[in-house]
Design goal:
mainly alpha; single chain; about 140 residues; 4 helices; elongated
Length: about 140
């Protein structure tokens, strides 16, 4: 066996080559991203078990794909046939941002309430100096 012959283990560890981004795929990609963002927005509003972390990872992958596709489109502006799709995507992202901000504000409020409850429970007088006759 030649020392240059790949074995089955070395083939399994290599990542699959990434397909080249083609500008023709840009419209489909914009549509997928828009759909994913709209789905996330609706799910945050309605599903308390929604996995925001997984959804964020999905959006990150799509952003990477979009960046590659736009690089493949050339150095100029976005092709005119995709501008309307990008405008719709921008609007969906704006709605998504507002929903995520509201969600984070709600989480922050709940965390603050819980912190206050814990502090109140710790300060209920059980271990205060007044209980032991030191404070008069």
């Amino acid at each position: 066996m030649s020392e240059y012959a790949p074995n089955s283990q070395s083939l399994a560890l290599r990542p699959a080559p990434e397909p080249a981004a083609r500008p023709g795929n840009l419209g489909a990609l914009i549509g997928r991203i828009t759909e994913a963002v709209a789905e996330e927005t609706a799910s945050i509003r309605t599903d308390i078990r929604f996995d925001i972390k997984a959804s964020n990872a999905k959006k990150s992958r799509y952003l990477y794909e979009l960046t590659r596709a736009l690089k493949g489109a050339g150095q100029g502006d976005v092709p005119a046939e995709h501008r309307d799709g990008l405008i719709r995507l921008r609007d969906k992202l704006s709605d998504n941002e507002a929903v995520i901000r509201a969600h984070l504000n709600a989480v922050n409020e709940v965390a603050t309430l819980m912190q206050n409850v814990i502090q109140h429970a710790e300060n209920d007088g059980t271990y205060s100096a007044g209980e032991f006759g030191y404070a008069r």
